[in-house]
Amino acid sequence: MTTALIRPTADLYDSWAAAVNEFDGVHIDGSGLQAPVVPGRVTLDALIRDAAVLADTTVAPPEDRVHNDLYWIVDDREVVGFLSFRHTLNDWLREAGGHIGYAVRPSRRRQGYASAALALALDRAREIGLERVFITCDDDNVASARTIERAGGVLQDISDQTERGHSLLRRYWIAL
């Protein structure tokens, strides 16, 4: 397994579409896509444009957004998941979203991809000078909680975000 984070690219369209399809149209954490998610060339082209805008730190991000590096988690040119690294936190991210969001496609879970991708995202956080990152997962997502804790995550609290469409959230800080 050689896990890497790459920017969205049309070169991996078929693999991206297959990965997105495994989520059956629901929201995919870290993907930069809004539910219902239907893969297609137009969707990917828009995602690539949006990713470029959000990653460009020379211009202010659109209102209610923050600078954000959108990545695909890949293994040998197969898209196995998605990761979003936000450079700063706005009000919503400070409560529920965090600096890092990720998802691994169902057929590739429990193979170490989330841990490897999170480690790479923490390297990116160090590159831009962050001293710690905030990360959340649903309280019932035991696998994600373990991944975060293995990466050094310290539980801040369990927050009730049901009014924002979430379940109970485990909220962690990882010191860098």
TrEMBL record:
UniProt superkingdom: Bacteria
GO molecular function: acyltransferase activity, transferring groups other than amino-acyl groups
Heme is among the record's keywords: no
UniProt keyword annotation of DNA damage present: no
Alphabetical UniProt keywords: Transferase
Pfam families found in the cross-reference section: Acetyltransf_1
N-acetyltransferase domain residues: 31-176
PANTHER family reported in the protein's UniProt record: ACETYLTRANSFERASE
The protein, known as: Acetyltransferase (GNAT) family protein
Species per Swiss-Prot/TrEMBL record: Microbacterium hydrocarbonoxydans
